[in-house]
Specification:
The protein is α/β, with parallel strands linked by helices and 320 residues long. The chain has two domains: 136 residues, NAD(P)-binding Rossmann-like Domain (Rossmann fold), CATH 3.40.50.720; 163 residues, L-2-Hydroxyisocaproate Dehydrogenase, Chain A, domain 2, CATH 3.90.110. Helices cover 41% and strands 18% of the residues. The chain is built from ten helices and 13 strands. Helix 5 crosses helix 10 and helix 6 packs across helix 9. The longest helix is centred in the C-terminal third of the chain and has 24 residues. The radius of gyration is 19 Å and the shape is globular.
Length: 320
């Protein structure tokens, strides 16, 4: 008797818009079975059932389990963390620091207990700082805590370039580094349209406007939606990271990782191009930045370092 091969498991902590949409993408594409966890009674269970009922229409047999119990995340290959408060109009990502810090610390303790061999993808904002909390509290190696941010910011930058030049998004390759916030650094020298550097395709004033729009891309959606924040593109960015990890694709995807001297930065989670495979972070790709880009990246990392100092004060240096 042939024993069927067990599918891999991805657990998603937080069944809000980003978490539920990420779960939907995973099961619809047959990537893995999913555990969707939320402490709100019935929310994860209801959304999971709703997604499963689309299976006969969409043709997928992957499974999704809604739960409020952390025991269900055991044996997860990847744990995505989306739990916490979302941004409201007029609220910066850093305003969320105190609100979400306590939540993510509790999540980290449960991941450490129930899924100690997993790779964590933090999504909750302020993402770079929440990634630090997850890394510090779980004690995981840096290779297994990889924040979603750069993939989303780079996708937004690419779309805005596509809109400006009326060019297919498939022809555009963009790169954004730095913190997932207002200090992000779109790299013009490493962004191209059909292989041509963007500086040669877009006038300087329009290019600067696109850079600024990219930096405020999340806030623009919050302003438009008023009572919600972005979730379709964040879910797609998260999915791309999970897919590269589970399929061992070795794709280079801008992500927030703990730097240990790369780009002259140490001790902070900063968005940089990284290679992702089934062990998580395989390599930090170090690019030859211009002096201006290097200065902007250092400034962005400095803002993150200030946030980490605030976290340490808030949690008494994370002593338990």
């Amino acid at each position: 008797m042939r024993i069927p091969k067990k599918r891999r498991k991805v657990s998603i902590i937080g069944a809000g818009n980003v978490g539920a949409t990420t779960a939907q993408k995973i099961v619809e594409n047959g990537l893995a079975d999913v555990v969707l966890l939320d402490i709100r009674d019935g929310v994860a269970q209801g959304k999971s059932l709703d997604i499963l009922e689309a299976g006969p229409l969409m043709g997928f047999d992957t499974r999704i389990t809604g739960t409020g119990h952390y025991e269900e995340i055991a044996d997860s290959s990847v744990v995505v963390v989306t739990a916490g408060f979302s941004r409201k109009p007029g609220m910066s990502r850093d305003d969320l620091l105190h609100k979400n810090g306590e939540i993510i610390r509790d999540v980290a303790l449960n991941i450490r207990k129930f899924a100690p061999d997993s790779i964590i993808i933090p999504v909750t904002n302020p993402m770079d700082l929440m990634a630090y909390v997850l890394w510090r509290v779980t004690g995981f190696p840096r290779e297994r805590v990889i924040g979603m941010g750069g993939a989303l910011d780079s996708s937004r930058f690419a779309y805005f370039l596509s809109e400006e030049t009326r060019t297919s998004v498939s022809n555009i390759h963009s790169l954004v580094m730095g913190g997932h916030g207002d200090q992000m650094v779109p790299l013009l020298d490493f962004s191209t349209i059909a292989g041509v550097p963007v500086r040669k395709m877009v006038p300087p004033d329009r290019l600067e406007a696109i850079v600024q729009r990219t930096r405020h891309g999340g806030a623009e959606i919050v302003h438009l939606m008023k009572d919600s924040s972005a979730y379709f593109a964040p879910a797609a960015a998260t999915y791309s990271m999970i897919e590269s990890i589970l399929h061992d694709r070795h794709r280079i995807i801008p992500s927030s990782v703990l730097l240990e001297g790369e780009y002259g930065i140490s001790g902070s989670f900063v968005g940089v191009p990284v290679r992702l495979g089934n062990q998580g972070l395989e390599e930090v790709v170090v690019l030859p930045l211009s002096p201006e880009e290097s200065s902007q990246l250092t400034h962005s990392a400095g803002v993150i370092a200030e946030g980490i100092s605030a976290l340490k004060r808030l949690f008494n240096d994370f002593s338990e």
